[in-house]
Design a protein that fits this description.
It contains seven helices and ten strands. Helix 2 packs parallel to helix 5 and helix 2 crosses helix 7.
């Protein structure tokens, strides 16, 4: 059937990892999980927990994997708008600018992506945002795991799952982040349960654009 790997980058005793089994629908069944201190052991532990004979279908990483050539990320504006509509009281604090994130998230997230790419060259690597997902996806709100880091790693597999199954209510937000730069080789994605209409609302609150119009490369 196959499995997904989820990674929640952090520092000492704060790097969550997990393996979850594929399913036709969310939520996913946790196969194994744990917490360690860095990207390399997290990836090694996750790979060692993959059941024999089962392929790794994709990996979700709670960290930015791409950057625009200048300015802020369009994808962050869209996710902020989505969780604000869902009632998040501090959307800019939940979805921070990449320039505001801690080094453990940024650096360890990229190192985890590099580790996975070295092991599985064609594996889809998917940016995830577990805390935002909990605001906009009902299935994410009841997920439990032994620790918060493992829970966020498990929620990361939801975005990886969407990259494979392509549910109609989810979108690959990297399609509006153009042009972008990444030190990690593709395939790279950022799937969230945010549709085209929500993306357009974030791009143009006045509603001038219509669904089907080309999305702008940058959002104000």
């Amino acid at each position: 059937m196959g499995v997904f790997i989820g990674l929640d980058p952090g520092g000492k005793s704060a790097f969550g990892w997990c393996v979850a089994r594929d399913s036709p629908a969310l939520p996913l069944l946790l196969v194994a999980s744990g917490v360690c201190h860095a990207a390399r052991p997290a990836v090694a532990l996750a790979m060692s927990a993959v059941p024999a004979g089962e392929p790794v279908l994709a990996a979700g990483i709670d960290a930015p994997l791409v950057w625009p050539r200048e300015g802020g990320r369009a994808v962050d504006n869209v996710v902020r708008a989505a969780i604000r509509r869902a009632g998040a009281p501090h959307a800019p604090g939940t979805v921070q600018s990449v320039n505001s994130l801690r080094g453990a998230c940024l650096v360890q997230g990229l190192l985890a992506a590099v580790e996975l790419r070295d092991r599985l060259p064609s594996l889809p690597l998917v940016e995830a945002h577990p805390k935002a997902l909990r605001w906009i996806l009902p299935e994410a709100q009841t997920v439990q795991a032994p620790s918060q880091h493992e829970r966020d790693a498990l929620l990361g597999t939801f975005s990886a799952w969407a990259a494979i199954h392509r549910p109609l209510t989810w979108s690959d937000l990297y399609e509006i982040e153009n042009p972008w730069f990444s030190p990690v080789a593709p395939p790279l994605h950022y799937f969230m349960p945010i549709g085209a209409a929500q993306q357009l609302a974030a791009a143009d609150p006045a509603g001038v654009r219509k669904v089907g119009d080309a999305l702008p490369s940058k959002l104000s």
